Amino acid sequence: MDAWDDMVLVGRIARPHGLRGEVLIAPDTDFPDLRFAEGATLFAREGDTVVALDIDRSRAHSGKPLVGFRGRDRIEDVEGLGRELKIPESALAPLPEGEYYWYQYVGAPVQTEAGEAVGTVVRVEPNGGSGMLVVQRGPEEVQIPLTPVMCPVLRPDLIVVRPPDGLLDLNSPGPKRRAHRHRDHLSRHGAGRPPGRNPGAGGGQGPD
Questions:
Q1: Radius of gyration, CA atoms only, the chain
Q2: Neighbouring-strand partners of residue 64
C-alpha cells in the first residue's frame, strides 16, 4: 500500500450522519460516482494508523455521497476517523496520452512563452469548473488559471503560461493553504506536445 502522503485525496468526511456509522462526504474528485460507490475502498487515518474502509452502502444526501463502511455500523466506529479520504495512486484510472491529473503538475517548472522563468507549481486549487495553479515565485505565491488560454503548454515536466499584464505581480490572497500534492482531478484541457519537445509559441494544446 502507498504511504499516506503519496496517496491521492478524493474527499473529506464532513460529519457522521445518524447512529449507524454512516458519514456524509465532501468530494474532492472528478469521479464521485466511482470513488464512493458500493464496493469501493477508501483509506483514512485512525489515530496514527492508516485503515482501509470498504463501502458497503452508498446513496446521495443533500447533493453529497452518504456512505457506510463494512464492519462499522455504529457512530462510535467512525468518530475516530480523520477527515481526509484517499486512494492509492495505483488505483487511478489510466488517462489518454496527453492528459494528466492535477497532482501531476505539482513540482512542474513554469515559464512564459518568452522563456522567462516564473516559478514552480506547489499545488492546484479548485476554482469553479476548472483549477488554479498556485506557483511559488520567489518568496510569494501567484495564482494562474488552469485554462487553455492561460496555459497553452501544460505537462508535468513543463508549463508555459500566457499571463495578462500584471498577473504575475499579484500575490496569492489570504493565508497559505496546506499543499495537497495529490488530488483526484483531471486537467480540463490537453497537455501540449509530448515531453522532450520544445513548446514553441502557442505550443500544442490538446483536446478538452
A1: 19
A2: 61
185 neighbors 101 (Cβ within 8 angstroms): yes
Handedness of CA 135, 126, 38, 67 (dihedral sign): positive
**Pair type for strands 158-161 and 153-155:** antiparallel
Domains defined along the chain, listed by start:
4-91 (2.40.30.60), 94-191 (2.30.30.240)
Does the predicted model carry a pTM greater than 0.85?
no
For residue range 107-116, what is the model confidence (pLDDT) as tens digits? 999 999 999 9
Convert 40-70 into a string of H (helix), E (strand) and C (coil). Answer: CEEEEEECCEEEEEEEEEEEEECCEEEEEEC
Helix (H, G, I), strand (E, B) or coil at 5: helix
Q: What is the pLDDT of residues 88-97, one digit of tens each?
A: 999 988 888 8
146: phi then psi, degrees, rounded to nearest 5:
-90, 75
C-alpha cell at 153: 503548454
| β-sheet bridge partners, residue 124 | 133
Q: Which grid cell is 8?
A: 491521492
Cβ(45)–Cβ(30) below 8 Å: no
Report the alpha-carbon angle 191-192-193, nearest 5: 125
